[in-house]
Specification:
It is a single chain. The chain is built from 15 helices and ten strands. The protein is α/β, with parallel strands linked by helices.
Length: 335
């Protein structure tokens, strides 16, 4: 079934919605195209549909797989482990079902954290990495996400689906857009995410996922302590200059922490640069893939990287802000 799905996808650039049961749970994914595989991982509360502005274009040169993470979109929403590490395991298992050995990862927001965790856990399966407005490079995040981790958040999300409340939210979004703020840029997409939580199961999965990576003080998972492991892994960072969810300062911090990484700032874009400028995003990804060679990790190489750690030269170049965030990581989950 999985193999036929891939063969069908290769016959056209049209995006197909497929599903497969893994560990007893239905996993839904969008698939299209042919060529070197790209795995696109969406953000929290979102779904593979967020990638629709770029899926068909990317499928002209690639086999594109965009899953709905467990607890999201059309995938099942059990009472389960919604940690970043569990999501990385889920991506490995889905690729196994689809008979895909190695991929270039594209991760947005939470999906960026999942992509980094996947690369850390399964370096032999990772060819390249594109991180889009990714979490994990600092504590800062939207006050709205911090508030959603507090007690009673699930009831509040449910209340937002009441017709009168939704009308009020629409007015609020319109006001924010007219104010031309970063939050105004992102508000329509953030509202789209909230509107995609149709029932109590979906809201519970959203809250569980959010609390695994954010608390009232900000992000609680870091990748700063092991960014040195991206040596030899082609990595590109894509950010909107007016991102209201993960501030653009995190992009510069991540670049300095990841040896040899590229950075593209989409001036004027918010948290969803691939939706606001899809043609530019596709061009950037295609150029990145065309001008880099897939990583080739061996056991000995990985062992040497781990033994060497961040290295004195890297530590000496770290900014005070970077060192402060790295020190703060000691009280957070780094796995």
């Amino acid at each position: 079934m999985a193999v036929s799905s891939i063969e069908d996808a290769r016959r056209a650039h049209d995006v197909r919605v497929e599903s497969h049961v893994v560990h007893g749970y239905r996993r839904v994914f969008r698939i299209a195209g042919s060529g070197p595989p790209l795995l696109l991982i969406h953000g929290i509360g979102d779904s593979s549909a967020t990638w629709l502005p770029v899926l068909s274009a990317l499928a002209r040169k690639h086999l594109v797989i965009a899953p709905d993470l467990l607890g999201h979109g059309m995938s099942d929403k059990p009472r389960a482990d919604y940690s970043v590490a569990a999501y990385a395991n889920g991506m490995r298992d889905l690729l196994g079902v689809l008979d895909i050995d190695r991929v270039t990862l594209l991760g947005h927001s939470l999906g960026g954290g999942v992509a980094m965790q996947f690369a850390y856990q399964f370096p032999e399966k990772t060819e390249r990495m594109v991180l889009v407005s990714s979490g994990g490079a600092g504590r800062g995040t939207s006050p709205l996400l911090r508030a959603a981790t507090l007690p009673g958040a699930s009831a509040l999300l449910a209340a937002l689906r009441v017709p009168g409340a939704r009308a009020a939210v629409s007015v609020g979004v319109s006001v924010l857009e007219r104010l031309d703020t970063g939050l105004g840029l992102d508000a329509p997409d953030l509202r789209r995410v909230v509107d995609a939580l149709p029932d109590a199961q979906a809201r519970a999965a959203f809250i569980r996922t959010l609390r695994a990576v954010v608390d009232w003080r900000g992000q609680v998972v870091t990748m700063l302590d092991r960014c040195y492991l991206t040596r030899g892994l082609p990595t590109m960072l894509v950010w909107g200059s007016r991102d209201s969810v993960v501030p653009v300062g995190h992009a510069y911090r991540a670049r300095s922490a990841m040896p040899g990484s590229r950075l593209e700032i989409f001036d004027g874009a918010g948290h969803f640069p691939f939706r606001s400028e899809p043609a530019r995003f596709v061009e950037s990804v295609e150029q990145f893939v065309a001008t880099t060679s897939p990583a080739q990790w061996g056991v000995d190489q990985w062992r040497e990287l781990l033994r060497g750690g961040r290295g004195e030269a890297v530590q000496a170049s770290e900014s005070p802000d970077y060192r402060a965030d790295l020190q703060a990581a000691s009280e957070r989950s780094a796995t």
